[in-house]
Amino acid sequence: GKRAGLNETPEVGLYESEDMNAFATGMNRNNSMVAFSTGLLTKMSEEEIAAVAAHEMGHIANGDMITMSIVQSAVNAFVLLITIPLYLAQFFSFFSENVGLLAYVIISAIRFLVTGVLMFLGNLIVKAFSRKREYEADTLAARLISRDSMISALKTLSMENNPLPKGQKDYAVLKINAPAGLAEIFSTHPSLEKRIQRLQSLKD
Description:
Elements: E1 11-15, E2 22-28, E3 31-37, H1 38-43, H2 46-61, H3 64-95, H4 101-144, H5 147-157, H6 192-200
Parallel strand pairs: 1-3
Antiparallel strand pairs: 2-3
């Protein structure tokens, strides 16, 4: 823990799941936990598990959990701020006797469209930040354990045959291994291949 810059060693948790995964949780460095799936512990070597643990401790050391919440909140606040004038225009057009139904419908449609576009773009920003934090956690794990161990762990993850359980998809962003989107810009995690390539390019 101290090698990762943590004063308190995170608690260790275990959860029953056939998929190979792990995640970190906790809002600060002194109150955190790293949880491992039973599937990961049975299918990975000790060195690979150590690398995964270091990866998750990297997220804790970097404050990624709270930072992700802040980034998402900032995006939501920005969208709200930009669309307030449209909300007001929609409100007044509804109660105004001088504005017809057509104008109200047009304003409503514009507000819906602008909000949708801004939320879509904001979501891309959040996912880009999430991908960046995965690369950083991989790098820290490579330095704490070894580059080869982290690469080996990622290669083992690439052989995963069990899909992420439905009930866990909502917080896949927290996990070391998340399903890829149709394109990387829609994914919270870089592809395992790119993560391996990034580690291979690190200088010893």
